[in-house]
UniProtKB/TrEMBL annotation:
Domain (YchJ-like middle NTF2-like) ranges: 1-87
Protein name: SEC-C motif-containing protein
Signal peptide: none
Transmembrane regions: none
Organism: Microbacterium proteolyticum
Length: 90
């Protein structure tokens, strides 16, 4: 999760693509250069075999406006690596 947050923060589309499950990865990964990611707080993480859930809050600033993303993300282990499957924003 932390590496994906950092990839969003620095605009590393290649890392985002590598760390996204091929079944759910979009054809085009958009990273808004006008967004400044300000911090990440992991609220909960749980692993069950080859599946994991991470609940986090990520704060951002975009065009002078502050905001926060709150998400429950699902991950799967593929080839010994964790990849992002999908998430529920709330």
């Amino acid at each position: 999760m932390r590496s994906r947050y950092t990839a969003f923060a620095v605009g590393d589309r290649a890392h985002l693509a590598r760390s996204w499950h091929p079944r759910t990865r979009p054809d085009q990964i958009d990273v808004d250069d006008g967004t400044s990611w300000r911090g990440l707080v992991i609220e909960h993480a749980a692993e069950d075999g080859d599946a994991a859930v991470v609940v986090f809050r990520a704060s951002w600033r975009q065009h002078g406006v502050d905001g926060e993303l709150h998400e429950r993300s699902r991950f799967a282990r593929r080839g010994g690596r964790w990849v992002y499957v999908d998430g529920d924003v709330g």
